[in-house]
Design brief:
Elements: E1 2-4, H1 33-51, E2 63-67, E3 72-74, E4 80-82, E5 87-91, H2 93-99, H3 101-128, E6 137-140, E7 148-155, H4 162-190, E8 193-195, H5 207-216, H6 219-229, E9 240-242, H7 246-261, H8 269-278, H9 282-299, H10 306-315, H11 330-339, H12 342-346
Parallel strand pairs: 1-7
Antiparallel strand pairs: 2-5, 3-4, 6-7, 8-9
Helix pairs in contact: 1-3, 3-4, 3-7, 4-5, 4-7, 4-8, 8-9, 8-11
Length: about 350
């Protein structure tokens, strides 16, 4: 996800080429300290999200952990306790981060790798087209379902033409999916199958996951094995799902961020692709899509996305590029239209409830 950070040097009524000596602007040095700081904070927040098992709570809240006899942990009141028997116990946040460190590390590495690959797709293509771009700014959040809201890079859209904006916009999602899809497949392969509970988890599986599950796992064989191991013949007629794990959740978050970014509105990645396809006329298409999204939010009571819609509205329409007359070749047209289906396959179904 990217947005314009700087509009300096744009057309203000006199084209630079018409001046005797076109004004030159000193090249700004890329900021390094802030991106590194935000990356470090996002490492911590995603590690904590993995330790908290991707539950929608705030870091610092008590959380159950699995202990063995003799394990020492800190209870929610801050007292040191030695476990007398094996089982789940509620613990202080410090013990949560300590006992669940494996899930925390695996999730942190996987999700940050996917997000970094996404942003580097933008960055490297921007460099290839000689368009000024910042290093990625990761967005940490203390809300433990994801630990992050992805990352952004800043670029100057007035330094890129229509085709270059298209290339930069589409490069990130495609690069990210190169890792996200294997993460999803790997997560499904190692996931433990269990009967579908009466009330399924709130974060639904995207369409891509539903398509991959029967390909990766033989559900009929899973049901037969479960029925035999648990002596429950009726299990073959039950609906099954999979327990989430760190690898799958990293892929799920990657799909969420990719699907969200590829919404063809404003200055999201999908907005850049839409502008590359239709030029200035894309603003009318984007507005229709935005109205449809607002209607979906109301229809499905998905008001948790209201802030995102407000931010998109505040960012406004996609700005003009350095040259809107540049056309896309047939391959880019085909790739662009195909990429607009990414939200359909990657975005979790409404509603997302917890």
């Amino acid at each position: 996800m990217r947005q314009a950070l700087d509009a300096t040097g744009g057309d203000i009524g006199i084209h630079p080429a018409s001046l005797p000596h076109p004004p030159s602007h000193p090249r700004r040095r890329r900021r390094v300290s802030l991106p590194l700081l935000l990356f470090g904070l996002t490492c911590m927040s995603t590690y904590a999200a993995g330790c908290y098992q991707w539950f929608p709570t705030m870091i610092g809240s008590p959380w159950p952990i699995e202990v063995q006899p003799g394990d020492t942990f800190i209870d929610p009141q801050g007292q040191s306790v030695t476990a007398a028997e094996a089982g789940p116990v509620f613990a202080n946040w410090r013990s949560v981060l300590w006992f669940n460190w494996r899930d925390g590390v695996i999730y942190m590495v996987c999700v940050l790798s996917a997000l970094l690959l996404h942003e580097m797709g933008h960055f490297l293509v921007a460099r290839r087209h000689r368009v000024p771009a910042s290093f990625p700014f990761f967005i940490p959040i203390p809300f433990m379902i994801t630990g992050t809201m992805g990352a952004v890079i800043g670029m100057d859209p007035y330094k890129a033409n229509r085709r270059e904006v298209f290339d930069i916009g589409i490069a990130g999602p495609l690069a990210g999916l190169v890792l996200i899809i294997p993460l999803v497949i790997g997560g499904i392969m190692i996931a433990k199958p269990v009967p579908q509970p009466p009330e399924p988890r709130g974060y639904g599986d995207p369409l891509l996951v539903k398509l991959l599950m029967p390909v990766v796992r033989d559900m009929d064989q899973i049901k037969q094995d479960y029925a035999r191991q648990h002596n429950q013949p009726q299990a073959v007629n039950q609906e099954f799902t999979f327990q989430v794990n760190a690898i799958y959740m990293a892929g799920w978050v990657g799909m969420l961020v990719t699907g969200l970014n590829m919404m063809p509105v404003s200055q999201l990645d999908g907005g850049h692709v839409l502008y590359g396809l239709f030029g200035p006329a894309s603003r009318y298409v984007a507005r229709v899509i935005l109205v449809a999204l607002i209607a979906a939010i109301v229809m499905f009571d998905a008001y948790q996305w209201t802030l995102m819609v407000i931010l998109v509205i505040l960012i406004g329409d996609h700005p003009p590029t350095a040259d809107d007359t540049v056309k896309l070749n047939p391959l880019r047209w085909l790739l662009g239209f195909a990429s607009l289906s990414i939200p359909v396959f990657c975005f979790p179904p409404f509603p997302i409830q917890f």
